[in-house]
What does this fold into?
Amino acid sequence: GNSVTQMEGPVTLSEEAFLTINCTYTATGYPSLFWYVQYPGEGLQLLLKATKADDKGSNKGFEATYRKETTSFHLEKGSVQVSDSAVYFCALSWGYQKVTFGIGTKLQVIP
Amino acid sequence: NAGVTQTPKFRILKIGQSMTLQCTQDMNHNYMYWYRQDPGMGLKLIYYSVGAGITDKGEVPNGYNVSRSTTEDFPLRLELAAPSQTSVYFCASSSDRRDQPQHFGDGTRLSIL
It folds into this structure.
């Protein structure tokens, strides 16, 4: 079946450091890929998405590229801020809104 | 700009009590979902609905029930609450297109004592 493997956290970085959170997937067909972010005490919200191979999603300085050859959708940001501290979820969607989420990666950015 | 609204935000129940978690959305989405989130365990799907009158089980449906009488509302019922149901519950909605995201409420934090 379809699945998402996401690096376990927590990830602790200093402000202005480079961020990578790895996400790989297993899927048949052509799923859409998403990154969601969850701030403390809130629900998940869409951060970025990509719907076909080689698409790059971007938002708020975060980027991820849909790599079909490596079945990956790694999240990157060049310079993190304290306000980026949150839990990040990778997810894939196929068929009629069938969605699988990764386990989430907690990011802590220290000043 | 309401989106998905969940009530209550917090609740403490005694073992054996029952309650209904409310969820409503104003985006005219056909698909609605209930998840539970346990610490360090990601999201687990409890039930989902593809439209009014149609519901189906997810990964962890035992101990819960749902109904969908309108497009807007998707309440989750806990019967005979147990400590294992202590969790944060999220409701979400989406269109039926796989390239569109799910929209989440802010959650209900439930403790069973």
